[in-house]
């Protein structure tokens, strides 16, 4: 059994206005836009990333990276080469189990 801790890749927040929210975060904090399209954005901070998502496309969640995500369900591939499975904890919080692109 490994003593290595899991890695939280990002936290995702639902936002009403993507452009306005990106502007607010980049104006008020030292972060960089790692990805942006019309449906979501990823802001890179020193220690993790912040995903800004539309409520009708993604639940608020946090993402944990794993090499093997199949034990959590059927992986869904994403356009950036990653794949993931969404699960819920016992309290109903959403967690994305994320396999990074090779």
User: Structural class of the helix and strand makeup?
Assistant: mainly beta
- Tell the overall outline: globular
Helical percent range? 10-25%
Taking pLDDT < 50 over at least 5 consecutive residues as the criterion, the unreliable ranges are none
Helix tally equals 1
Q: Rg, please? A: 14 Å
Output the CATH topology.
Answer: 2,3-Dihydroxybiphenyl 1,2-Dioxygenase, domain 1
Number of separate strands: 8
The ordered H/E elements are EHEEEEEEE
The total number of structural domains is: 1
Please give the CATH class.
Answer: Alpha Beta
| CATH superfamily (homologous) name | 2,3-Dihydroxybiphenyl 1,2-Dioxygenase, domain 1
Shape-level CATH architecture: Roll
Mean pLDDT: 94
Percentage beta strand? 35-45%
Summarize the topology:
Elements: E1 7-14, H1 18-28, E2 32-36, E3 40-44, E4 49-53, E5 61-65, E6 76-77, E7 83-88, E8 94-99
Parallel strand pairs: 1-4, 5-8
Antiparallel strand pairs: 1-5, 2-3, 3-4, 6-7, 7-8
How would you describe this protein?
- It contains 1 helix and 8 strands; from the N terminus they run βαβββββββ.
- The chain has 102 residues and is mainly beta.
- It has one domain: Roll (2,3-Dihydroxybiphenyl 1,2-Dioxygenase, domain 1), CATH 3.10.180.
- Strands 2-3-4-1-5-8-7-6 form an 8-stranded mixed β-sheet, with helices on one face.
- A hairpin with a 5-residue loop joins strand 7 and strand 8 (94-99).
- The longest helix has 11 residues, at 18-28.
